[in-house]
Amino acid sequence: MYNLRDIKSTVQQTADAIAAALKIEVEIADADLIRVAGTGKYKSRCGYPMDDGFVYGHVMKTGVPVIIDNPGFNELCQPCPCRGNCLEYAEVAIPIRSEDQIIGVIGLVSFDEEQTKRLMDNKQSLLLFLEKMADLLVGKVVENQQNHERELLTNQLLTVLNLLHDGILLINDQQQVTHFNTHAGKLLDIDAEQEQALYQLLDDKKLWKAVERGETFSGPIQGKRVATQLYCDVVPITNNGSFEGAVVTLKDIQQIKKLVKEATVSEIETHFSQIIGNSSKMNELKTMALRVAPSKATLLIQGESGTGKELLARAIHQSSNRKGHAFIAINCGAIPENLLESELFGYEEGSFTGARRGGKLGKFELAHNGTIFLDEIGDMPLHLQVKILRVLQERRVERVGSNRSIPLDVRVIAATHRDLDEMVKSGEFREDLFYRLNVIPLTIPPLRERQEDIPILIQFYLDHYSTVTDKVVRGITPEAIEILTHYPWPGNVREMGNVIEYCVTMVVGEDNITPDILPKRVKTEPKAEIEAKNLSLNLKILEREAIMKALTLVDAEGHKDDAAKLLGISRATLYRKIKDYNIGENKTFF
Ligand SMILES: Nc1ncnc2c1ncn2[C@@H]1O[C@H](COP(=O)(O)OP(=O)(O)OP(=O)(O)O)[C@@H](O)[C@H]1O
User: What's the 491 CA to ligand 1 centre distance in angstroms?
Assistant: First the structure.
């Protein structure tokens, strides 16, 4: 609703102009019958409600002009408390109308015979004149409101611009910067007092040309006053086909790189040098892993819990050309079955009750261009194994609740501590997926099978926890190392880390770690475990002998299928075991 009070001084000027032209007093009221402007007797009574505004009230209500030539006797004067004492001789009042709203009244009032004559003799032309004056006021009040709205919008837009993390420059058709936000000010060191031309701030001819021609532009550029590498986008602004300026967006390239890295790359960067161990088995494994790292091949890492499967997967990712992209790890065994599917593949908005607005990206999509590490793949339910297989075959993913398939470039590294070969036989794991995953198998031997790595791992963790806890530990005695070397380490390297952390915490002063400081379980390995260990050693010997026997029986290269059948294991397992047991290919075994 327009309000005449907002343009009070214009209303007063209009009243003065009418009064001067007609030599009749004027008063102008707003929609609340507050006198906004007045001349003569009324000049001092502006800003107050009109107590005697019965005629104006009527005009406001009906929207019809009123002419009163007999004040006090007209029926509109009946309720007026001043009736009988009215000083006015005659009155003309017309509504001020803006479209379908009446926003006020203009009144002409005569206080003597002469004024009354002028008023009554020219009634019709005066009414016409007042209508024009009313239109003028409406135009002014509308313009005032529009200015106010424009100002508000400008303030809102400037506030939004200043909240943005990009630098924004608004350029006119003369290549002058008409506005810039706070961030652009910082990036370009703009002098707010001085008018700036674009070429004074940014050093790139192609950019200037694009702005001049009203073309789009995107690319890296250099700021002129600050040595910041910027990424710039230009969007031209046209009006009815003619170029009126441009919006230039600026991003700090260093900042973009940082954000991309933060958003996509895990902060843990692992290199092969961080995989501690010099045993022949570990060296062999690392050589193999380094060789396959640059390829696109799917990998399956097998090994007991805590042997460093994830560490190896991260090192492989870091040594591949995917290293600038995401490494996304998901533990398939740790996520409830009903959530695992949407975690892996994402979902569309509204695909199930409780689905987030806007849907959700799955881990596969997050790993685009990078690596996905499917830990504990052996715990993957069968129905999801089918979906994983499809992703591996088609290199596309479909979100839950969508039939749009999204192309993907993801390297898959799966890991498990379970015997997938056995699981395939028992029907718990799909054979086709097993073969897909097992293209290049990598097996991390348990710690007890590479005892020569134990002392260096002990030293590694001693250094690590001394630094972390800020404690000086002199060393570890040979007796303590001996005990740790013969402990079977069911939790492997992870467990060793915990044991050394415990020892560093327990050691008093700057002393050595001695056997008495070691945790009890390490010193008193239960008999059963020792027996089990020996039994497993014996079983391994038996297994090696059985494999050699089977190979001798079939006794020809290329007939390993027959040997595998004889042994009741898959061909893949046979190959792995031949490698594990270091069985020569062309030897006669007996
Ligand atoms: N060779 C190694 N050198 C240094 N640290 C290692 C080594 N192997 C494992 N670790 C450390 O041991 C811990 C367990 O490693 P990781 O999580 O990679 O094992 P995992 O085999 O994936 O375990 P799980 O099967 O339980 O998921 C980590 O802190 C890792 O840094």
Answer: 10
Say which amino acid occupies 524: T
| Interface ipTM above 0.95 | yes
Distance in angstroms (rounded) separating the CA atoms of residues 383 and 195: 66
Average of per-residue pLDDT across 155-167? 91
Higher per-residue pLDDT: 526 or 171: 171
Pocket test for ligand 1, best of 493, 495, 498, 499 (most atoms within 8 A of CB): 493
Q: How far apart are CA 96 and CA 99, in angstroms?
A: 10
Separation CA 571–CA 558 (nearest Å): 11
Could you tell me if 294 and 320 are in contact, meaning their C-beta atoms sit under 8 angstroms apart? yes
Inform me whether the pLDDT recorded for 468 exceeds 70. yes
pLDDT at 322: 92
Query: Distance from the CA of 153 to the center of ligand 1, in angstroms?
Result: 57
Report how far ligand 1's centroid is from the alpha carbon of 289 (Å). Answer: 16
Ligand 1 centroid – CA 585 distance (Å): 33
Q: Which of 272, 285, 494 for a ligand 1 pocket mutation test, highest count of atoms within 8 Å of Cβ?
A: 494
State mean pLDDT over 532-541: 58
**Is pLDDT of 28 > 50?**
yes
pLDDT at 588: 34
Q: Is the pLDDT of residue 557 over 60?
A: no
List of residues 6+ apart from 470 with CB closer than 8 A = none
Which token pair is 343?
């975690």
SS3 485: helix
User: Residue 262: its pLDDT value, please?
Assistant: 63
* C-alpha 274 to ligand 1 mean position (Å): 11
- Over residues 64-91, mean pLDDT: 83
Nearest CA to ligand 1 atom 29: 494
Using CA atoms, how far residue 52 sits from 15, 34, 62, 86, 589, in Å, is: 19, 11, 18, 10, 125
At 425, the pLDDT band (50, 70, 90 cuts) reads: very high
For atom 24 of ligand 1, which residue has the closest CA? 305
Residue that the structure tokens 């061909």 belong to: 571
Pocket lined around ligand 1, Cβ cut-off 6 Å: 275-277, 303, 305-311, 375, 417, 493-494, 497
- Report the residue among 268, 307, 316 best suited for mutation to probe ligand 1: largest number of ligand atoms under 8 A from its CB: 307
Nearest CA to ligand 1 atom 10: 308
Interval between CA 173 and ligand 1 midpoint (Å): 62
Please say if the pLDDT value at position 520 is more than 70. yes
Q: Is the pLDDT of residue 39 over 70?
A: yes
Distance CA(359)–CA(399), nearest Å, equals 9
Concatenated DSSP letters of 366-417: HTTTSEEEEETGGGS-HHHHHHHHHHHHH-EEE-BT---EEE---EEEEEES
Average of per-residue pLDDT across 27-33: 94
* pLDDT given for residue 52 in this prediction: 67
Degrees to nearest 5, angle at CA 582 with 304 and 315: 45
CA–centroid distance, residue 310 to ligand 1 (Å) = 6
- Residue 506 pLDDT more than 80? yes
Reduced to 3 states (helix: H, G, I; strand: E, B; else coil), residue 98 is strand
* pLDDT computed for residue 264 by the predictor: 55
